[in-house]
Amino acid sequence: MRLVMTLLAPLLGWISFQLFRMPLFKKSPRKHRLVMKLFRYAADNGSVRALSVYGHLLFYRGEGETNKVQGAIYLERAADKGDMKAAYQMGKIFEQGYQNFPMSQEKACRYYQAAAEQGHVLALRRMVDAYSEGELGLDVSESEAGFWQAKLTGITAQG
């Protein structure tokens, strides 16, 4: 049964994302509860996209500290599974520190770098700034800043 749910998780994540974006019943509390349940179910069964979106919704739009902490946990799981948006958000969380996620320049840098390597524009900008200014515990390095700047320029030139 667990295998079936793991295989269905991406589909449930997709369905919940489509319902979330649908303008029909936009302010409906019932729709909101259903979508959040679907996101959580898909996230708990391995959908990386659901982990990322559900974590983001809980952290940035959740009510109360418990929801925000739970959102950060989901974001961290998504980032550790390779989601670039979640990796960038975890970089911000570790850079600023939050509740159970104490400030850590090393972890912030690791998450920013993971997101930047996948082409996340804001993470690329943060890496350029970090190497240019010697932030996040990094030494000033014009060559590293130039590397990330070239990658940023290549991505922004594409589209």
TrEMBL record:
This is Sel1 repeat family protein. InterPro entries: Sel1-like, Sel1_AlgK, TPR-like_helical_dom_sf. PANTHER family: SEL-1-LIKE PROTEIN, SEL1L ADAPTOR SUBUNIT OF ERAD E3 UBIQUITIN LIGASE. It holds the Pfam family Sel1. GO terms for biological process: ERAD pathway.
